[in-house]
Write a structure and sequence with these properties.
Shape of chain A: elongated
Number of helices of chain B: 8
Distance between the termini of chain B: 18 Å
Strand order of the largest sheet of chain B: 6-7-8-3-9-10
Number of strands of chain B: 10
Largest sheet of chain B: 6 strands, mixed
Order of helices and strands of chain A: HHEHEEEEHEHEEEHEHEHHHHH
Largest interface: A-B, 22 and 29 residues
Radius of gyration of chain B: 18 Å
Oligomer: heterodimer
Structural class of chain A: alpha+beta
Strand content of chain A: 15-25%
Number of helices of chain A: 12
């Protein structure tokens, strides 16, 4: 009962000093809104990046010689990956290995009619679209029989189709591609729509993207790849499986341990997540300092309020208020000021995050946990910085307080 | 005879003023019975305010014992004293001491809030008391919208809320014009004579003191006289 009474009392007191209460809240509002904005933007960035990584497929693994640790090593012909290595891996890791290609590609200047342009063709194995999120809009993707038959088929991106053929659907038409110096005619068997990506801006090249069987863009040459592009089957541990593959490759090729290394999208995403997490934590902590400043503002104004209301405190004590009644009255007042500031700050911070994310064009993630934490934390700031003034009020001697002018 | 409300036994109060000890009260022995109407008089510095603070449990004596209705309150803790003030003492001050920016009704309710009386009951009692002091049309006025006499009436209503055995008024007419002073003293007389409240008024004005039945005079921390007034003698006749 007394608790409700105190809340009403606090609201009355806040109302009767509107400007002062608002200025006091401002510190908390700024603190909470910047914490909310920063953590929301951080979380949203994380979600966007993780979505980006998922478009590669989380179970994507690259195996390649460890250049990073041995930058000076020369690659012997034996160290490069051959078709036999791919076949051996496919047999040895029959269940775990969902997809493998030697990550080869070609660049080709191409003319169709009077249109001239560049293509970047990536060699893939069958069913690549099942692993990398691809949206086939016309025709079909490269299949395993295309791979085995070394068919000169190509699947091209929509913008390229429009650029060269002035139609979204040039399936069945042909494209001349330069494969190791020989111009060859490839049949277009499919068109895909490229997904808008955060990284597409960074990766922009003047070349249009296309996919062909890796066997056909290899031409007459043997497979001689420096990197294997692998997808691991669902349910297998990515790190463990890729390590086993690296070990197996080193063993069958008779190469010293540690020569190859693997890198997975999962581990890259972990790294990026960690960097983003640390970054938003660091900036959030700086914003958190402004909360402390806001708290000191509350303490300051509560001290003024206690002095102003000394006589009122004396009257209350004369009428039977106990030390705790006065303490709770002032604590609740400072908590309410700061909780109101916390609510306004949360709304403002979420607003800033919404605007920021809509400018960046990314999806907004506001964690309800963060909001709850922010409001509770601001109330706690109010309580912590309210303790000293409230104790000062509660400890006033009633006679002196009544005499106070 | 009526029972004792207040008994002071060998009360001393010493203040430290720098290095000098000031004896504000020296060996005060005093008994006030239920239903008495008492004035405590004295010039300023005579110790009457100190006595008032001790009677009202705002302060503790340095020595001696103070009994309210037979209970020794001289050794109680601060919070216990708060409860004694809440239940046993109704204060009326010279400067009214209403809570600013708070309606007359809320002011009257306040002692009941600290007595943890439910809201409905509080409201009813406060309305009843304000009607009793003739402020039935001023429930929702703020203190700064009331005249001095009206403020003091709100204060009287507030003093009566928890039906305290002692009503303690410190220069209740000190800030009032003569017309309001008379009205207020009439209220006190009515409280004493009709409602049988024990009323103690601290004053330095003889005109005010003569409303009461018993005048206790202080000088230099000691009681110099304690006698019944004309009122009492008239009643006795």
């Amino acid at each position: 009962m007394l608790f409700l009474e105190n809340i009403k009392l606090a609201l009355t007191s806040i109302r009767s000093n509107k400007m002062r209460s608002f200025l006091t809240m401002l510190g908390i509002i700024i603190g909470i809104s910047s914490v909310i904005a920063i953590t929301s933007i951080g979380d949203s960035a994380k979600a966007t990046v993780s979505k980006e990584f998922e478009s590669f497929g989380k179970n994507n693994v690259m195996i390649y010689p460890n250049w990073r640790e041995n930058p000076d090593m020369t690659i012997s012909p034996n160290a490069a990956f051959s078709q036999e290595d791919i076949d051996a891996l496919s047999v040895r890791f029959e269940k775990e290995l969902a997809y493998i290609d030697p990550s080869n590609n070609i660049q080709s200047e191409t003319t169709v009619g009077r249109v001239k342009g560049k293509w970047a063709v990536q060699g893939v194995a069958g069913d690549y679209d099942k692993f990398k999120n691809m949206n086939i809009i016309h025709g079909r993707m490269i299949s395993n029989s295309d791979l085995k038959g070394k068919r000169d088929y190509v699947v091209i991106e929509k913008t390229g189709a429009k650029f060269f053929f002035n139609t979204e659907n040039p399936v069945g038409r042909t494209l001349n591609l330069n494969v190791n110096g020989n111009m060859r005619e490839f049949v277009i068997i499919g068109v895909y729509a490229e997904e808008k990506s955060l990284f597409s801006g960074l990766m922009s090249t003047s070349a249009y993207a296309a996919y062909s069987p890796y066997t056909s863009i290899q031409g007459d040459l043997e497979i001689n790849a420096s990197m294997l592009n692998i997808y691991i089957g669902d349910g297998y541990d990515i790190k463990q499986t890729s390590d086993a593959m690296v070990n197996y490759l080193e063993k069958i090729k008779g190469i010293e341990k540690g020569f190859y290394t693997s890198d997975s999208v999962e581990s890259q995403q972990g790294t990026v997540d960690q960097i983003l997490g640390t970054l938003s934590l660091a900036i959030g902590a700086i914003a958190g300092i402004s909360l402390i400043v806001g708290g000191i503002g509350i303490m300051n104004i509560m001290l003024v309020s206690v002095t102003e209301r000394t006589r009122e405190i004396g009257i209350r004590k004369a009428l039977g208020a106990r030390t705790n009644d006065i303490l709770v009255q002032f604590l609740i007042e400072s908590m309410i000021i700061s909780a109101i500031g916390g609510v306004i700050g949360t709304a403002l911070g979420a607003g800033i995050a919404v605007i920021g994310m809509s400018i960046a064009g990314a999806e907004l993630v506001i964690s309800p946990l963060v909001v709850l934490f922010a409001v509770l934390f601001s109330a706690m700031v109010g309580m912590f910085f309210g303790i000293y003034p409230a104790r000062k009020a509660a400890k006033l001697d009633p006679i002196e307080a009544l005499r106070y002018e | 005879m009526s029972k004792e409300i207040i008994r002071l036994e060998n009360i001393y109060k010493t203040y430290k003023n720098g290095t000098i000890n000031v004896e504000a009260l020296k060996d005060i022995n005093l008994t006030i019975k239920e239903g008495e109407f008492v004035a405590i008089m004295g010039v300023s510095g005579s110790g009457k305010s100190t006595l008032m603070n001790i009677l009202g449990c705002l302060d503790r004596p340095t020595g001696g014992n103070y009994y309210i209705e037979g209970v020794d309150v001289s050794e109680k803790t601060d919070d216990q004293l708060s409860q004694v003030r809440n239940k046993n003492v109704g204060f009326i001050f010279q400067s009214f001491n209403l809570i600013p920016r708070t309606t007359a009704l809320k002011n009257v309710e306040l002692p009941m809030v600290y007595a943890k009386i439910p809201k409905e009951e509080r409201r009813c009692r406060a309305i009843e008391l304000l009607n009793g002091v003739g402020l039935g049309d001023r429930y929702h006025h703020m203190p700064n919208e009331l005249s001095g006499g009206q403020k003091q009436r709100v204060a009287i209503a507030r003093a009566l809320t928890n039906k305290p055995p002692i009503i303690l008024a410190d220069e209740p007419t000190g800030n009032l014009d003569s017309k309001s002073s008379i009205e207020i003293m009439e209220i006190f007389r009515k409280l004493n004579k009709e409602d049988k409240n024990t009323v103690i008024i601290v004053t330095h004005e003889h005109d005010i003191a003569k409303y009461t039945d018993r005048i206790i005079t202080f000088f230099d921390g000691e009681i110099t006289s304690d006698k019944e007034t004309e009122n009492m003698k008239q009643e006795a006749l």
